[in-house]
Amino acid sequence: MLNQESLYPSINDNIELFMRIFPGDSTIKFRKFQHPLVKSFSGCLIHIEGMVSTETLSNHILRPILHFRTSEETRDIPFMELLMEGIIEVSELKLSGDLNEILNELLNGSTLLLLEGKEQALLIGTQGWQSRAVMEPGTEKSVIGPREGFTESLITNLSLIRRRVKSPDLKIEFMELGETTHTAVCLCYVESSVSPKILQELTKRLKRLKINALIDSGQLQEMIRDQTLTPFETVGNTERPDAVAGKILEGRIAVLVDGSPFVLTVPFLFIEYFQVSEDYYSNYFFGSFNRLMRFLGEFLAVSVPAIYVALVTYNQEMMPTALLLSIAAARNSVPLPTVAECFVMLLVFEILREAGTRIPTSIGQAVSIVGALVLGQAAVDARVVSAPMVIVVGITGITTLLNVKMKAASISTRFLLLSLSSFMGLYGYLFGIIGLVIHLMGLRSFGVPYMLTVGSIKETDIKDTLFRSPWWGTKLRTHRTQAERRIRKVTR
Amino acid sequence: MLISLQVKRLAVILCSLMVLSLTGCWNYREVEKVTTVAGIAIDKGDKDGEIQLTVEVVDGSGGEDVLNVGSNRITLTGKTMFDVVRKMITQSGRRLYWAHAKSIILSQDIAREGSARIIDWYVRDTETRADIHILVSGEKTAEAVLRNDGGLNAPLSFKIDEMLKNEKSLSNAPVMEIFDFADTVNTPGISSVLPMIYLTEHDKHTTASVQGMAVFDRDRMLGTIHADDTKYALFLRDEIKGGILTLGDYNHPPGISLEIFKNKTKVKPVLVDGQIEIRVKTQTVTVLDEAQFNGVDYIAPKGREEIEKLAEDMLVKKMENVIHIAQTQYHQDIFGFGDRIHKKMPKLWKTLVADWDERFSKLKVTVESDVVIRGTASTKKPLKMEEEDE
Q1: What φ, ψ does residue B54 adopt, rounded to 5°?
Q2: Can you give the pLDDT at residue B389?
Q3: CB-based contact, A332 to chain B, within 8 Å
Q4: Does residue A391 belong to the interface with chain B, where contact is any CB pair within 8 Å?
Q5: Which residues of A touch B72 (CB under 8 A)?
Q6: Which of A72-81, A235-244, A417-426, B311-320 has the lowest mean pLDDT?
Q7: Cα–Cα–Cα angle for B305, B310, B313, rounded to 5 degrees
Q8: CATH 3.30.300.210 residue ranges for chain B
Q9: ipTM confidence
Q10: Domain B240-390 has CATH 3.40.47.10
Q11: What is the pTM of this model?
């Protein structure tokens, strides 16, 4: 792009150079200045509008320069040195002659200070752009526990983590990804807990990436995961700083991407879908109960339609007589066969869900009215669908929302099980479940078995799985936590 | 290389598509496309060699209100059971669905001529389930019982099912499922019994009621035992789970009801001078639930012992009576004494099994009873006594 590699000595040439690089871009601001007393003290400030704090620019850079009084002692010192050592009241300063670096810094919100006759520019850290305030995370709300959520600003996000883990053991490694976007990516881990092998593997995978644009951590999530064909995530993401702090303390590695409020954590195990921050802050009976509900909900979310279809079309003898008769009565004169009815209704539900997600809030109510009235009540009254099917789809829909993060996996698993049970009844459903278990058992996240500790009955292994055991029951961190210990063990 | 990979992939996709479609739909049937059978009544047909089958069906066409689900009866005759069953399609239009049937009622004619022939299809077929209740009609035909709906809209067979399930707090008829029956028919040490079902009339409605039992010699019915005696036969069979023991009545003191909480009957075969004898001992835990007459002291240990003694004597007398009926009238071991000997003294049993019916008729049985009154329910004194005190 550039055949030029360094700056010109003349200010005017340099200004022209930048105008050539950014033709017609009026957000590039040039401010020429001339010291009122010393003729040779002239130069130019270049910054991008909106990326810098104008307050810093005018009060702490421009004003001190123009108000600078020369004295006997300072007469022989070059102006650039004076600027760097005393005049400019900004902590972050750097002198550079490399045009590429200069451009990057400019685009990153630094202000360039060029002096007449100098081929180097002073890069002043004046970053100051508008960013969203720290708010409660929208995807992971909690009743008890911290309300802070990550924002789009990497530095803010790092501070949110650091404030929770105040230890020199917390290591932060930066790198840059995206050939065009130059997005800052940051690895964050606790050195004493992290598994060096996983860290090495993660760094290798990140270094290997050749991508043009990195906009959100979601892209990275898919690019660094183990390449297996599965709807289950093997890289976790969260919007909660407390969750990330907990996870890195357990030996996981967090990957932060500038511009994304979602922080990735690796390795990610199946059980983490069901562990919610709030479990750890509320009463352990309540926490365990909620976790059990999530497990049950997931089971229902993938199984209810399949089991219903199997019972109604193959295994009627498994139903209580009263239920059989009531379903038969409700299904009378419904045109579609049960299987087709189930598929159609589930699809309709997915459409409603997708519509509800994208719809502007001002017309959001329309979706619920259409969903509840038109598709629910009216369809049953008109005998287009049967009432039990509405209940089945309703239960499925609600239980899917118990584990929102697992949505993708739930939906695909559900349709798979449904197709199997529509061919072979409960027999097919069980086949599907067996296949699902085999699949999950075979998955790995950064070399760690996805279903780690599932099937173990050792006390230390199951303390934080189906139930959350009370804090006083888990001995104080004299030895490593179970997840950390197990992860280390399998990656040794 | 690339082409072969694509071909391979295509082959896998095609194969799996074919496999999936070739499975067909094994046993696929929509729930509203079958007619659910609730109960069955079996009679002899009018013509020689024919069976008449009556089924009560619920097809869920009663509308959305499930409680009002109506039932229809279909009666047809045919040569064999399965013959009639398939012919039913001509009446119902759909195939019958048997897995939810609750009860089979046999007519006395059928039962007396041998019921095994009739139930063979039911036990053998894959569409039916062997945990269905089986009863014998006390009326002229089984159809008469099943045709009667007692003015209720609910299917009669479901009501019979309820009745039999609640038998455990009544104990006036045995509860037999078809596989129990099939079992006992083939076991030499115990004779089969089945509950009886009658029609009784109440204000212009007739309703079915289950009481008493039919006694069988293998699969042939011999006769019936009255409901009052049936309870004590159940004591001997160790099938008592609840029910009431009464002492006296409205006009005769002490007018007491004892509710049975728990009963354990021990049957012990013993050899006395080379002769086999049976010793029966019942242990019954009861609660005094009703005392109509004053002056019955059931709180003091002494008074309580008296009542217990009365109950024990009554039990022994009644049990001896029902043993007498079984020994003299039917010559059938309906209590399973032979089975008990088989288990305790297998070698001896081999010498007895051949003519067990005769030996049973002459068998010496001693009955002992132990009744314990554990409590007096919630009221300590009879109501009348309190009135007199005031």
Answers
A1: -120, 125
A2: 45
A3: yes
A4: no
A5: none
A6: A72-81
A7: 120
A8: 240-390
A9: 0.77
A10: no
A11: 0.82
